[in-house]
Fold:
Amino acid sequence: MASVIGLGGSAQAQTPPTLAELTRRAEIIKPATEELKWQRIPWLTDLAQGQRVAQAERRPILLWVTGDDPLERC
Amino acid sequence: MPVAVNLYKIREAKDAGGDLFRSAQRQKDQYQGLWIISPDGRVLAAHQNFKSAETWTQEVRDTLASGLKTFGPVTPRPQQAIHQLPYRGVGVQPNGSVTLALYSRYVHGGGPRLAPAATNSKSLWMWEGGLKPDGPPVIDTLSLTAGEWTAFAPPRVAVGAEWTLPAATARKLARVLSPSSDQSTMPRPEEATMAELKAVVESVTAGQAQVRLTGRWAMKHIYDGKPSYGWATAEGIAFYDAGRKTPRSLLLTFSGAYRMVPPWDKEDRPIGAVVEWRAASR
Structure:
């Protein structure tokens, strides 16, 4: 298994990246602004609370269910 | 009223929310996805399996429109988004714990030097060219206890001071090796076949230590009897405030490869990941 990660050794032989270089690399990997539009939605994570609010405001519930925590907590 | 929940939790919930979900599933039996539900519990519309990636967005819009049409007129609801995880990637909680912000995704390019040594030469073309995203990102969090967080402090605030973080903490980071946030793909800490994170103080200026981080990880995750694999090396920089005796920031970037179970992946694909945190500004 160490040989599989052997490239890590060669990467470290080069000059370590600066903070600016690491930041640039991170910005490519992190979500772009357009990939975070869903965060503008005021999601609740408690369905019982959502039903109470929906009843009070007389509007339907948009329920999003996934096999993980949809809002980042995996 | 938008509500987002975890399937594994809501289907076992013993409260009114669990009852409502189970009722919705009986009316429209789908494993997960979207349901439009009236306040009194009637399913108005639902959506799970999309026809194609190209039509998926429109299918969801059509589902929402159908649900609203069935419900009747609704006035717009101006709202500011609720910040569900205020400590994600920032600050220390009152109990001393921190929540790291994690990101992971398939990438393309970055240079062949980032490809794991065992990468088939026929796959190296995926590492050529400049680094760019190749698919949607995973947005994740990882909580560290106060005790685990102390491991990020240097044993001495002096140039050359070096240490290796506890393996148990390093293993927790193995989850970034999956560019999908589904529980069927994400490795558990015990599935890390290698997890090593090292630190060394590079410089000290005005009581602030700059710490160089390097690490390597490998994992084998079994789901439904089939394995998926991930490998990565990481490079990063953290800053530590010697006066306040606390870290100030952490940025760790990962470069590696991931191979999902067949038939999804027949070869390793490049991945990139980021772990970051910063102290709350005053």
Summary: Chain A touches chain B through 59 residues (CB under 8 Å). Residues 31 and 37 of chain A are 10 Å apart (CA to CA).
